[in-house]
Amino acid sequence: MVAKSRKQTGKSPTTQTDRDKNQLVSPPGKSNARRPGREGKAFPGFHPNGLAGIRHKLGLTPSAVVKHGLTLLLAALTGYLHWLHLSQLFENDRHFSHLSNLEKEMAFRTEMGLYYSYYKTIIEAPSFLDGVHLVMNDRLTEYPLVINTLKRFNLYPEVVLASWYRIYTGVMGYFGIPTKMCWSINRGDGLTPVDSCEGMGDPAYFYVTCVFMLNGVMMSLFFIYGSYLSGSRLGGVVTTMCFFFNHGESTRVMWTPPLRESFAYPFLVLQMLLLTYILRTQNPSKTTMVALGVSNLCFMLPWQFAQFVLLTQVASLFASYILGYLSPTKMQSILVTHMITLAVCFILMFGNSMLLTSFYASSLISIWAIIAMRDHFAQVFKAGIIIWVMQGLAWVGSTVLLKFMLSTILGASDDAHISGLIKSKFTSYRDFHTLMYTCAAEFDFMELETPLRYLKTLLLPINLLVVVLVAGRTFQDLGRFLRGGGKASGKSDEVVVAAGSEVAAKGEFIQTGHVGFSNCFYLQKNVCCQSKEINDCKEVKLVYHSLQLVAFALLAVLIMRLKLFLTPHMCIMASLICSKQVFGWIGEKCKNQIVVFAVMAVMAVQGLANLQAQWAIIGEFSNLPQEELLDWIQDNTGPDSVFAGAMPTMASVKLSTGRPIVNHPHYEDAGLRERTKLVYSMYSRMSGETVKRNLMKLGVDFFVLEDSWCTRRTRPGCSMPEIWDIEDPQNIGKIPLCTHISRNSRRHFTTVFSNDIYKVLEVPKDQR
């Protein structure tokens, strides 16, 4: 039986009870046994003052203060509930609070362990600046190279969290306040007892708690976003309910806290909320544009793939501009903000070339040029479909051309695998690096089960209805414009400007008055288009948000992992069932609310079942074979011994033993991809001598062989030997080298450690 006794005092222990063992199917590395748990946390209160002065300064009436206060209160409540939900799911899945330090580190598998290792480096360094210097001059990650990991791996979240941790523990230590409770854990089954600590003074506990708090704030932003977009607090409720009911499709932060998206996505939500405000404001202030830029920067700095999401945003905005829903002035203001943000990010990332050679950067320049040449387009092409198509083609062509020109000039090839990945989605193209992505389920096409799950919670039907309404009214207005031949209505400039001012407050909505299509309001010398009178402009359409939804849907269909952008945006769009502008045809407010509550009741049937399925996941992390491996490395190899092997395992080796490695899971660097290819030749059908020379060339002392990598096959053509057959066709049909080595390694290597999963091979030194 597993027993737990208090090892260090500092607060009174709570009653310990055995936890239930009701468990669904647990992932590999988890046992059904549970260790006893504890609970109990306290939070300080907050007393606001000066509300009257703030209300007067903001120009709010008492009723408006009450309404906004209620919205913020509900937002805070949803954020708190989401934080609790994430924390409980993570604890239930791993029993994280009862793991030893080594087990906690092993729980951060693959690239999670790599990112966490730099946080560990900074907090264990003599000083914060010493730690930052170590990660900026890293000699362990790609031996024998010295690399700036802050530049390569988007590690600003780890730098910030490490600084907070050092400040927190320093202040608490100064006042003598205990920050963690440590216990002796009897693991049973003949295993040695381990020490387990919990509390904000524990590095891993502090790390995951901060991640979950950030994503709690994200849920508060979702509530505010849904309320603002729909014009109703009920819209915020719908958004958050949809998110909870589709939680497994919306986020994976509860299973993978250290991943880059866990830090970046909350800032994307803030950025899109600010963008919505800007689009709905005729003349957004400089403060608002600065806030947009800061949120944009906070989204880009933690995540190398943020550029692709921002590319879809810029494309959606440009489509809105082409059709006349967005003025050139406002579009250029947004572009300038993006450009400045990109430049600042480039500087903070120490000149990371992937930023400048991205499609996102090229797209910003292309769109700016097209807007600057709008008068020339208007003179050459006829208003209507032709000018729309030509502007779109000009954007695509110039973006692609500029991207490849910049890549050639700067000699950057780090993102070449992305082009290969996209190419493989539409053709039969395959190579080693492309298959390393596409053979993983998360990079495959979206599975059929995903839209079926959307269907069961009504998320898909609601979004389809919203998009159909937006598209229908858009096509009606487009048809009216085209039937009018794109001719001006003959209104005076003053009438047009007045009309434009009245409608501009709803910038992201279709402007069905005199501020019409094909930028005719702006391109034809301020003469308005032939359309309905401005007083008839009461049916608004969320053009930008609908286009962004379509863009996210395309990304998710191509790469299943990116449904983590699609699902939350579908939750945002679902709030529009509470919008008078979109669903005003239902009738008065009471009828609309009845319909909304009826829809939420139907959604709750499957939604609550989804939540119960999440809450029923009970497990405990355990990986004894890897623990044996790491203990052996720590006790039997020198601190300068160099290791190679499977990318996920190498992240754990670096994190828990501090030994140099030659390859790791961060696959976005061209040089690292070639290193990994050399290491993975162990799983090819090449000769042992060839593989040995590859490892000696890299300076490897020990290779960690895993039989599962030799035999694992996610689908036909996706085992490691089959992937190598694409690159090494002359050896097709031979027995893989890893199979020979697992039976007898004496001819080429010396086996120095082995258990059921791992075998450590000593690589002979080069005698030359």
TrEMBL record:
Name of protein: Dpy-19-like 1, like (H. sapiens)
Broad class of the protein's primary localization: membrane
Renumbered residue ranges of the record's region Disordered: 1-43
Family statement drawn from the similarity comment of this UniProt entry: Belongs to the dpy-19 family.
Alphabetized UniProt keyword annotations: Glycosyltransferase, Membrane, Transferase, Transmembrane, Transmembrane helix
Cellular component annotations (GO), alphabetically ordered: nuclear inner membrane
One family name in Pfam for this protein: Dpy19
Organism of this sequence: Scophthalmus maximus
Membrane topology: Multi-pass membrane protein
Gene Ontology molecular function terms on file: mannosyltransferase activity
Annotated InterPro entries: Dpy-19/Dpy-19-like (IPR018732)
Transmembrane segments: 64-83, 204-225, 262-279, 333-351, 385-406, 454-475, 542-560, 566-587, 594-617
Subcellular localization: Membrane
